Every structure is written in structure tokens, then in C-alpha cells.
Amino acid sequence: MGSLCNSTNPSPVSALKLPGLDRCNSKLVCCSNSKTGSVVQLPMGSSPGNSQPKTLTGEAGYVLEDVPHLTDYLPDLPTFTNPLQDNPAYSVVKQYFVNVDDSVAQKIVVHKSTPRGTHFRRAGPRQKVYFESDEVHACIVTCGGLCPGLNTVIREIVCGLNHMYGVKKVLGIDGGYRGFYARNTITLTPKSVNDIHKRGGTVLGTSRGGHDKGKIVDSIQDRGINQVYIIGGDGTQRGASVIFEEIRRRGLKVAVAGIPKTIDNDIPVIDKSFGFDTAVEEAQRAINAAHVEAESNENGIGLVKLMGRYSGYIAMYATLASRDVDCCLIPESPFYLEGAGGLFEYIEKKIKENGHMVIVIAEGAGQDLLSEVLRSSDQQDASGNKLLQDVGLWISQSIKDHFSRQKKMTINLKYIDPTYMIRAIPSNASDNVYCTLLAQSAVHGAMAGYTGFTVGPVNGRHCYIPFYRIIERQNHVVITDRMWARLLSSTHQPSFIPAKDVIEDTKEAEEQPQTPRTQTSEDNSSDDKLSMNKEMNELPVIG
Ligand SMILES: Nc1ncnc2c1ncn2[C@@H]1O[C@H](COP(=O)(O)OP(=O)(O)OP(=O)(O)O)[C@@H](O)[C@H]1O
Ligand SMILES: O=P(O)(O)OC[C@H]1O[C@](O)(CO)[C@@H](O)[C@@H]1O
Ligand SMILES: [Mg+2]
Question: From the alpha carbon of 385, which atom of ligand 2 is closest?
């Protein structure tokens, strides 16, 4: 791969100071490396301290979408030897430190002529760090809705900082962003967080709304905080990006690291979000209960509502895992109730064939079918997210009305809404391990001076991803992908969309002008695992 202009310096922007700086075209400032032919590209007008996207290109279409570094705007920061070097636990690990040029490919299904494409900086410990242990004053904040694993991430940031880097000063911010300026802080030590991973929720508390950039950064500055760990979903990462920009503008030596949290799995680029596996597993319990109820009653229908405002991943994976579900309804797949090919017709068929059925519905599905009054589209939560109506209640009532009034058929419908129960449990074993890796990767990144990044796995390797890539889009189930086809063939439900419309929609989508960072439709061809299914599922953020 092509190396940076100054390969010993992790910050390509600081390389702008080196000889070789040139303007390559009208839009980009480039710095070429005569040995490798690699080029650092910065948007025109950029200068050290300006946090425009940092892109490096190399041979065969290689592109590195890099993250900011403290030296971008504080070029003279001293470096220190990584204390892990003398840590007996890690001393036997061969090549423990990540090579400064290591990066991870976003696209791993390739053809012989495929350009190498987008890469992200590989996460992990660096030989040189930009903070001394006793200099670090870190803080952790959790924002947005609950998600299994929040406490594990908090625990592992505290323990990672302490055990790997000897950092003693870690503060918990109470109650989300507004806690920076309106609430007390909590002192976090390895002892105080020792068993919090066994509990659901977040020991720090969380909230929506209350993001006040000025007050938050004032508080960071006043308290002498120099590493900020921000755990939350798309909204939180947007807030983190704003905080990072303000910190950079003030020229503070403060690293800002985002840890993506979303039970809905709607964050793009990363393989999947923590807590998702736990949520799918827990959803099985509700689906089982719905199945037992449906099977035990004459013309029984078990209806389960699962979370997923705009992304139906939990519903889709819970359905695929369960095999007891006859119909899965998600926001990405429009459906209709009446007439040929509609939901009522399918329910009648299933009841007549099997005597019962199970339906799973994601909370954001079918919102277009709710009456205008129910929709009350202007209601929002404190963060500005649109408040959705309870589609579960509405669809239960619609099914009951249809069969009792129109069909004169007695049905036994049991509606189960386990959403908050699913969100409130502690993470399962695999999510616990995942949370540990996320936390440690974030700590290594901040200690190495990276900032303005979200950490997460891309094709199984943890990376530092620039905020703009995380917040520009939302991850959605693509109903023209194989995974949704697998679901349809497992439930035998109607697709509710004539094939002709799907083909036309796809054509239309392909004809849309693509942003440079959006993958092409060719990438839609292989989706055997969730991680490979992500990038192509990105759609512009809704709402
Ligand atoms: N564009 C933005 N700029 C600054 N702050 C934001 C922005 N969007 C959201 N926030 C802040 O981020 C925090 C969390 O946002 P939100 O309530 O949307 O949850 P989230 O992080 O998206 O998590 P989830 O949706 O998974 O529950 C809130 O305190 C909100 O004020
Ligand atoms: O009731 P709250 O706390 O606003 O959270 C509900 C929302 O949070 C989410 O779980 C996302 O975190 C959505 O699926 C859901 O709509
Ligand atoms: Mg959100």
C-alpha cells in the first residue's frame, strides 16, 4: 500500500509541511511520495487544523479515508513510548503494535480488475503515544436509548485505560450530554466498575436532547479533561462530531472518540452494532411465547412488536433465527392489508392451513398506513427524532376488526410488546467480548492521538472511522438483497411488492448520482454475513 508523506508520522495533514506539497487539481491539495506514488489529498483551502476529510490514495485505486489526529492542529506535541511495551501481559505478543500504515479494506469481495477502493485506519495500540499516563484525564458519557452492553463498554474503557496505560483519572458524565453542564460527575475506577457488565442499562444514565456545544466544551476545558469517550447512536455521533470541531477550533489537546451504540443496527460502515446479537436472542423469547399462545388457541395469532425505527434488522434476524414466524413486517418493505396479495388474505390462508400464525412487526413498519390522526407527524422526542405511533396496537385492532366484522371469523390475537424488556438486559457473551474490543480500540486510538473518530469493526477488523462516514447515512435492510429473499423463502409470506416494481425501483436507485463514497450496485451481490451486508444497505438519513 502507499505510505503517507511522512510514514513515521500518523498524521497525513502534518505531512503538508513537508517538501513535495503541491496542488494537484482544482479541488484537492496533494502531497506526493515519489517512492510509492501515493498522494495525500485535502480539500482545497485546507490547512493543518482544518478538519476536512483526510484522504490518501495509493496504487491500484487504493483510498485511505483517514481520521483526524491531534497533530493536525497541534503539530509540536511530544510523543512517549507506549507503556504497553513493558506490560508483562502483552510482552509476549508478537507484533503487538499496529503498523502505522495498516489499513482495512471496506470491500472484500473483489474481481481481478476491481480497484482496491476505500480503506480505514486499523485500530490498535501504537508504538508511540501522545499522552503520558498521569497526564490523562478521561471522561465517558452515554447518550440516546438504552442498549445491552453499555455498561461493558464503560467498564472496559475504565479498565483499559488503567490496566494498559496506567491512567487513574476517569470521570463518568451523569445523564448524557446535558450532564456535562447540568449534573454531577461520577469518579470511575476499576473497582467501582468491576461488576457493572452484569447489569442492564447504563450506570452513567442517559438522555436525549440537551446538546449544547459551547457549554459542553467549556465544561471539558474547565475540568481539564483531555480524552472524551462518547457512547451512543447516530445522533450521539453527530453530537460528538460537533464537540470535536469545537475542541479543534479552540486548539485544545483533547481526543474525542466515539463508540457506536444502536440496538437497531442502523449505523453504517461497521459490521454490526453491539447489543444487536443480544437483542435478537432476547426477541426469540417473545416470539416463542407468541407461538405458544397462537398454537394453543383456536385461530390463534401471535403478534410481536420489535424495535427498529427505520431499520428492520432485529425483526429480520429474529425471524430468520426463530423459524416460528409466518410473517415479518419491516419499515423497508411496504405492505398493504386489503385485497389480493395483501396481509389479510395471507393471514386467512395461514389460519386455514395451520390453525395459527405468528407475525413479527418492527416499530417503524407500516407507518404510512396509519390514519392521518394517528400519525401526528409533528411529534418529536427531545433529540428531534420523530415519535412513531404504536403500529402493534394499530395492526392488532385492524386484524381483529377485519376478521370479526368482515369475515365473521373468530380469531384469538395476542399482542406482545417486549421492546423495552429487550433493551434493558445485560449483553450476552459474544456482545461482552465485542464491547471489550470496542472499548480497548477506542482507548488505543485516543492514547495514540487520534481524534474525531468512531471505532468499529469493518469486515471483522477494528478500525478508526471518520465521524462523517458514520453520520452521513443510516444502515437499512435492502429488500432486493439475498438476506431478505432468505427470509421470504423461510416465512413464505408475500413480498407485497410486484417483482416489476422492485426491478424498476432498483433501476431508479442505480440511476441516481452516487456520492464518491457510495459503493456501486455490484457490491450488492454477496451478503452471506451481516458484515458484508452493511455498506450496500446505506440510505440517506431519514428524519
Ligand atoms: N445533529 C446533532 N447535533 C448535535 N447533537 C445531536 C445531534 N443529533 C443528536 N444529538 C444529541 O445526541 C444525543 C443522542 O441523540 P438521539 O436521542 O438521537 O439518540 P442516538 O444517539 O441516535 O441513539 P438511539 O437512536 O440509538 O437511541 C442527544 O443528546 C442529542 O441532543
Ligand atoms: O423510548 P425511547 O427511549 O425514546 O427509545 C425508543 C427508540 O430507541 C431505539 O431503540 C433506538 O435506540 C428505537 O428503536 C426506539 O424507537
Ligand atoms: Mg438514533
Answer: 4
pLDDT digits (tens, 9 = 90+) for 185-230: 999 999 999 999 999 999 999 999 999 999 999 999 999 999 999 9
- Counting every residue written for the chain, the total comes to 543
Model pTM score: 0.87
| d(C-alpha 473, C-alpha 476), whole Å | 9
The catalytic residue among 264, 431, 523, 527 is 264
| Residue to substitute in 262, 273, 307 for testing ligand 2 pocket (most ligand atoms within 8 angstroms of CB) | 307
**Helix locations, 460-525, DSSP H:** 467-471, 482-491, 499-511
CA distance 35 to 519: 30
Distance (Å) from CA 423 to ligand 2 centroid: 9
Q: How much distance in Å is there from the Cα of 144 to the middle of ligand 1?
A: 6
Annotated catalytic residue 264: yes
Which alpha helices (H) appear in 95-233, and where do they start and end? 150-165, 179-182, 213-223
| pLDDT of 29 above 60 | no
CA 425, 189, 91, 97 dihedral sign is positive
236 Cβ closer than 6 Å to some ligand 1 atom: yes
Grid cell locating 114? 476491481
Percent of the chain with pLDDT over 70: 80
